[in-house]
Structures are given as structure tokens and as C-alpha cells.
Amino acid sequence: MRAARxxxxxxxxxxxPIGLNHYLILSALLFVTGVAGVLLRRNIIVLLMSIELxxxxxxxxxxxxxxxxxxxxxxxxxxxxxxxxxxEAAVGLAIAVNIFKRYKEVNIRxxxxxxx
Amino acid sequence: xxxxxFLFWLLAILTLVSGxxxxxxxxxxYSALCLAMTMVGVSAIFATLGALFIAGVQxxxxxxxxxxLFVMVLMxxxxxxxxxxxxxxxxxxxxxxxxxGLLAGLLAGVFAMTTALSDGIAPSADQADxxxxxxxxxxxxxxxxxxxxxxxxxxxxxxxxxxxxxxxxTHAKR
Lengths: 116, 174
Known about the structure:
The structure holds two protein chains of two kinds. Chain A is mainly alpha-helical. Helices cover about 75% and strands about 0% of the residues of chain A. Chain A has four helices and no strands. Chain A is elongated. By secondary structure, chain B is an all-alpha fold. In chain B, about 75% of the residues lie in helices and about 0% in strands. Chain B has helices spanning about 5-25, 30-50, 50-75, 90-115, 115-120, 130-140, 145-165. The radius of gyration of chain B is 21 Å and the shape is extended. Chains A and B meet through helix 2, helix 3 and helix 4 of A and helix 1, helix 2, helix 3, helix 4 and helix 5 of B.
């Protein structure tokens, strides 16, 4: 048990030269920040910003894996993610404008009145 | 500490702090500012990873277009009525933060176990012609996804116009 832990700690050398793990952990932390934003904030605009944060975190993972496996496929996928993100922001903001126009507020609780 | 290491830590701290700023700052305009800073940081991280073309696209699309969209919509709103920034409930808030922490632990664990992958595979040295081969890959192996995204963008453009012209939209028929 102790040996396994020592091996694990040797593998994850945080303060040495920068490797794949650094980028992945940075990506994970950024993603988690975005999740916290989606869960905790009530302003619909900030919610959309948090979703953008999550998408960016995933992009960092893609690029890091692509570099360390020496392939370009990750970068192509980042293209796709960026396109989806821009489209999602456009639609989400349009809906937010509609909600604000009707209720004069951008709070998430007005989403339940979206019907009709 | 080499230059690469220093650059990574600088960019990582910049990105994480501004990412936290997006979530924690109460005023949405400052959130947008922090998000722009995060985008610039992520773009620089792409550059350190050798993906220079993607870094440029990130600057143009995210730090440019998407941020302009966000700030413009923010300007449409009357932000003085902003009262409750965070969702209510002390207990449910604690549960949400605990869930996020669990997710962080899981992700860190998964990534710590992928160490074997990074051993033995040398990082790509030359990025010459990377953009060219990226384009070739996009139009050969991923051409279906590319076309599907084109159709998706068309659908979304029409959908947003429809949303604006529907009942209660910004350009509704009178």
C-alpha cells in the first residue's frame, strides 16, 4: 500500500519539468471552476460564461493530449468545440435577451416561464 | 526553474485566478473582463503547447467575437436590478461545493493515472507545416464533421433569427 503510494507520488512530479499531467490538472481545475459557476450563480449571462470556461478547459486537454501523442486530431476537435461554443453562446444569449425583455431580469429562476 | 516551467506556472495561475474571478465576482461586467483574461491565458497556453494556429483562432473567436457578443448583451440589460448573485440556501450550496470538490478529485485521480501515457512519448519537436497538415486533416478524415458543423451553423443562424421574430422576441411582428 505504502509502496504503491510512493510510486504514484513519483509519477506525479508536480514541481519538476512540465509534463502532460500539469496541463491536465490545470484543465481539470478550470473545468471544475466552470461547474461551480453553473451550480452557484444565478445570472444567466454568468452561467453562459461558466459554460465557456468548461469548454476552454476541455480544449486545453485536447491540445495537451494531441501534443504528447504527437497527433493533430486533437486540434481538429478543438476547432469543432470552438464552433459549437460560439453557436451555443449565440443561441443562449438570444434566449437571455428574450427573457430579459419579458421579465426585466436575467435571473435563472425565470427560465421556468420560458414556455409559451 | 527553466523558462518553460516559469511560463507554464505564470499562465496557469493567471488562467485559474481569472477563471475563479468569473465565478466569484458579483458584477457581470467584471465577470466578462475576467473571462476575456482567461481566454487570453488559454490562448497563451495553446501557444506554449505548440498549437500556434489554434492559439490565433482562440484569440480571434473567443477573446474577440464571443466576448463582444457577451459584453454587448450585458449592455442591453439593466444591471442595477441585479440583487441575488448566488443561488440561495446554505445547505444546498454546501452540497454543490462538495459535488464540485468530488468531481475535482475524480478528475485529478484519472489524470494522475494517465502518467504512463506521457512517459516514452516524446513531444513533437517541429511544428513546421502543422497548419497545412491540420487543414489537410480537416478536409479528409474529418470532412463529415466539418460539413455537419456547417449545417449546424446554418440551422442555428436561422433559429436565432426565428427566435428574435417570434412572439416576445426583440423583432416580433406587431
